[in-house]
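User: Predict the complex.
Assistant: Input components as received:
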Amino acid sequence: MAEREPIVNDFQIMIATVNGSGSQTANTALLRAIFRMGVPVSGKNIFPSNIQGLPTWFTIRVSKDGYIARLDEYQALVAMNLQTASEDIEKLAPGGFCVFPEEWKIRQERDDITYYPVPVEALIDEAEVPSNLKSYIANMAYVGALATILNIDLDEIAFALDFHFGGKAKPINMNMGVVRAAYEWAQDNLAKSDPFAVQRMNGTEGMLLLDGNSASALGAVFGGVSFAAWYPITPSTSLIDALREYLSDLRTDPNTGNATYAVIQAEDEIGAAGMVVGAGWAGARAMTSTSGPGLSLMTEFAGLAYYAEVPVVIWDVQRMGPSTGLPTRTSQGDVLMAYFMGHGDTKHVVLFPHNIDEAFEFGWMAFDLAERLQTLVFVLSDLDLGMNLWMSKPFKYPDMPMDRGKVLTAEDLERLGHFGRYEDVDGDGIPYRTLPGTDHPLGAYFARGTGHNAQAVYSERPDDWVENMERLNRKFETARTLIPKPVVDRANSAEIGLIAYGTTDACVIEGRDLLREQGIETDYLRVRALPFENTTRDFIAAHDRLYVVENNTDGQMAKLLCMEFPDLAHRIRSLAHSDGLPLTARWMSQGLLEQEQ
Amino acid sequence: MGAVNLLGLKRNDYKGNPSSLCQGCGHNSISSQIIAVAYDMSLDQHRIIKMSGIGCSSKSPAYFLGKAHGFNGLHGRMPALATGATTVNTDLIAIGVSGDGDTGSIGLGQFKHMVRRNVPIVYIIENNGVYGLTKGQFSATADYGQELKYAGVNELPPIDICMEALVDNASFVARSFAGDPTQVRELLKAALSHRGTAVLDIISPCVTFNNHEASTKSYPYGKAHEEPLQDITYIPEYDPIIIEEMEPGQVQAVEMHDGSHVLLKKLDPTQHDPTDRLAAIRLLEEARQENQFITGLIYVDRNRPSLAETSHIISDPLAHLAEERLRPPKEALDKLMASLVCCD
């Protein structure tokens, strides 16, 4: 053992592998085992747009303080990809350690890190594993070695594998055999000289681990989704995969065995968007899920849904753009696109979940908002939230009944004796609608994307056009009062305010603590939805300088705030960065300090 | 008083707003036949949805069945809207009206995928080979070598919408001519009785931009070159007509999904079997080579399941399910959460 002060539950592990080598089982087993030891963790899969062969990295942050943002540096490295090994070792933080296959004969050039060669091939040869599974199971060797080095409980690794394989004894035993063999080899042969360790604590009790796309899908299921259409695209595909799985479990009619929902794989995103608009018009709770390039294709239907006033929910699991961009890397680059999607004067309600709990909540709430407002509602997630595992407290069951909005039945029509599809009866800009199939002579109307009057009849009259657009704007004002309010955390700082949204929250929470260590207090407002409302205006007005922290190149939310609050624009500063990776607290605090000077 | 149908409605009750299309437009004639057929079949308008894309043709659903819901959507995207709407409410009867630009160009992909899925809809193409609203460009169905004042000479071969439908395994393909109201009516009745996508390509001359002798989509050409495949008599199931045994080879009955029948009287001695897909393709190709268009029921497959059937959904409309059938109970969420929570 080294003389150095031990560093317990506060470091980041980087696991470098080759895509397609099956390291995901090993990585999530490690993550889950540490989680089960009560230590807060977060894992991020940084993977290529490729099926097999390109480099993949998985980071596991272990944080006794509960920080879940990515760290810039890593203190523990598992180098399982020869192609990237030298660069991976070069970036290892001083004082860190590196586990690698002994047979690679890597030159041990750095004297400020510890090298732990592990005889991966020999361990696998000795294990009772079918030859076709050997390269896959090789990943379990580093799990066992890390268990020794970091003092991770083997029983918890066994539990994690049991969870992963759904209790199937054969794969559990096969994998666990290699873990144990590597663990024992390391116990006998590795002389620990690094300071890092995992120690049991009480930081995760009652919490769960789930990926954001599953949480989003589950939210939609408990929001009563009855129709989904989609086209495969990374990183949103697993949202629909999860949706289909949950729906099949929870929404099969017990009497007939048939589905109380339909999920259709469309020919493209134009088709997917059109199907959900058709279904929403007919009265279903309809959704699709996509990412940037698919969003571009959905643009014409977004305009139609806005103007014909059809309730629809679109999930956008954001990835890197412009264009095809980086399909497997995260960003918050679709904010302006989603908000204004469509030609002419179009604008939409946009929700920004920051964690999986909120992804679940917005998953069901989005349908209530869409039907109440009779409009398209976007939920902007991102690859980081959608495809990584996150800790959370259990999700809360919806605390209000489903809001189906202003729908007139045949009985209502009989009582009212009158129906005008786009009349503003209540003064809130939200008209009443009927559904196809309503058995009443007054029930029908002609939905259209062309100019129309309050009776939904085609009109080219200037006054009809203006009245309709003014009503749509009134409806947007009503939307401001119905969408989730921002979350504000004040620290009695009159000077500096921070504004962030979505997954950027993680780096802001930690970054504020880093700034506090430097004597800088900040207040924080987390935007949860567009359009803005008065809380955001008041927050900006109450601070001298506002830093808008976001994961895109152009500072899109900062631009939007300047546009919506032009009288306060001089206070707003952009703190934006996009390189494909989740933002870090160090980047955020340093960036702010630089602008402060 | 005037005549009424089984619902006690007059023919005028099936009208829509006055047409804003050109006088003499073939589309207006088709609208009239839709009104006549809906009246004859005593269709309940509240069960009907009228779907359309963009173009002259797509405006026409405003001009018929005024008490039915309608959706005038986006250019070439009516199939997607209809797919969503008919899937979530299988009680609805969808009548779609599209044009040759809408179906043959911008919406060809959606059209073919709708046909492939067998979405339950009567899908009418009011085909005039020209873009009317933008003043006379060629569409993808325009004739090879055709001349237009605006567009010059068409150097490209036409897309045959019926052929496109056939190669996508369409379950109902028919062609007619707007100037032959009797045949349009009978084919409409047959299409309305079909369970999946019923493609009805109706040559509908544009009086303003494409009605001269050189065009195959003109009245003069249509009248001169129309080759009716069969004389069709539609027999609705609520008024069965007993037909005496027919002369073999002269009459063929095709049973529709709702139990009604279409009787096909062969005019052509080289009899066409509308259940023979290969024969249907050959028929269209031969007609193309001879520069003719075939009218009548070209192909029908009454056994192909519709999208609702292949989706294995319940028979109650998904769009009208109550909250207790949409939102799983709290216990379901609690159970799922318990299975994920650390540390048992």
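The first strand of chain B starts at residue 48 and ends at 52.
Let me know if you want any component modeled separately.
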